[in-house]
């Protein structure tokens, strides 16, 4: 796994598009589900450089332990890690995954970019930051340190973009 640095995130620029591949699905019902593609109606803004820096900052926490309710700096839960990373770049997010699923700009799967926050599982019980190449940077579960997990292991509830 290549190290993710703040300098690398800045070097990507706002126009960086993910060249990796990802797969996932959206299932269930309600407002969290989505379908379709990014083409068609209004132009979707690209992921912001601040979101890419938040991804890089979250990457500095790789290897730290998972702890339910963890908000750092020694251990994290999924929403605590996401909230901290985005707060560090001046983007204030609510504390829980469920709250974070309701804010920001909803993004269709076909427009997914590194730095986007992915709310996962049919019940929105987990989240991470898309790292590109089909991987999510996340604080996954007990006994699994912060790191990358293939997006293909999850169902997608919603994807959110923050500026």
UniProtKB/TrEMBL annotation:
Residue ranges, annotated region (Disordered): 18-39
Pfam families associated with the record: NLPC_P60
Coiled coil: none
Signal peptide boundaries: 1-17
GO MF, any single term: cysteine-type peptidase activity
Gene3D superfamilies cross-referenced by the UniProt entry: endopeptidase domain like (from Nostoc punctiforme)
Keywords associated with the record: Hydrolase, Protease, Signal, Thiol protease
InterPro entries: NLP_P60_dom (IPR000064), Papain-like_cys_pep_sf (IPR038765), PG_Endopeptidase_C40 (IPR051794)
GO biological process: proteolysis
Residues of the NlpC/P60 domain: 48-163
Assigned protein family: Belongs to the peptidase C40 family.
PANTHER family: NLP_P60 DOMAIN-CONTAINING PROTEIN-RELATED (PTHR47359:SF3), PEPTIDOGLYCAN DL-ENDOPEPTIDASE CWLO (PTHR47359)
Name of the protein described by the UniProt record: NlpC/P60 family protein
Origin species: Nocardia terrae
Biological classification of the source: Bacteria, Bacillati, Actinomycetota, Actinomycetes, Mycobacteriales
